[in-house]
Amino acid sequence: MFTVTYAQLNGWLTAFLWPFTRILALIAAAPILGHRSLPTRVKIGLAGFTTLIVAPTLGAMPQATVFSAEGVWILANQFLIGIALGFVMQLVFAIVSTAGELMGLGMGLGFATFFDTMAASNQSAISSVLNMFAMLAFLVFDGHLQMIAALVATFQSVPISANVLAAPGWRMLAEWGSVIFSSGMLLALPVVVALLITNLSLGILNRAAPQIGIFQVGFAVTVLAGLLLSMLMVPNMIPFFARLFDSGIEEMGRVAEALRPPG
Predict the structure, then answer these.
(1) Where exactly are the transmembrane stretches of this chain (predicted)?
(2) How far apart are CA 5 and CA 21, in angstroms?
């Protein structure tokens, strides 16, 4: 007769549940994999399948029962780690959205918005297009696989334990948020500068020949100039996205290292 002791059952549960929580938290918070259009059952199934592969390689788990105070604290730690790592990659796509907002504002399309199901908020039309390009590039570059591989590597840098996560990791995550503005402006800079020159030229033309009625044609000129420049940027935009994704994957490792509890 096959019998299972409580110690064996607890060992199986902890070996699966704790890594599963970290992986599922990342999938829920990460771009593409955490998109609302992806069914919840698919996310849970992907997290469970990944856990079944990863769990046997993690070694011994802390000696704590699943539903004890220590076990629940370990569960909360794994959830926080997964959310933090997923948020790192979300900020990469926030860079693209920021660039689209800046470009749309310069083109006069700031009022043209769509409802973004991922962010649950309105997003400009240019941001939606750039986000679509970024998502396709992310899949083409196997960013989703690199992201999961980076997560699996964190089980070595941040082992499963009940220790309090280190503060430098959260500070590094906050500092990574500043990249949104610098990189977003860098991506949008060619279009923003060209549109600034266009608007200055239209302003000078309006002063030189007021009878032209520059306010009637100015909007069409800035939109056409912005769309043309955006189209010309596409060949150089994809390599820029690749560098952003690589930076995000590397930042995941650095944040995980900084979150490692002391001792």
Answers:
(1) 12-34, 46-67, 79-112, 124-141, 147-167, 179-202, 214-234
(2) 24
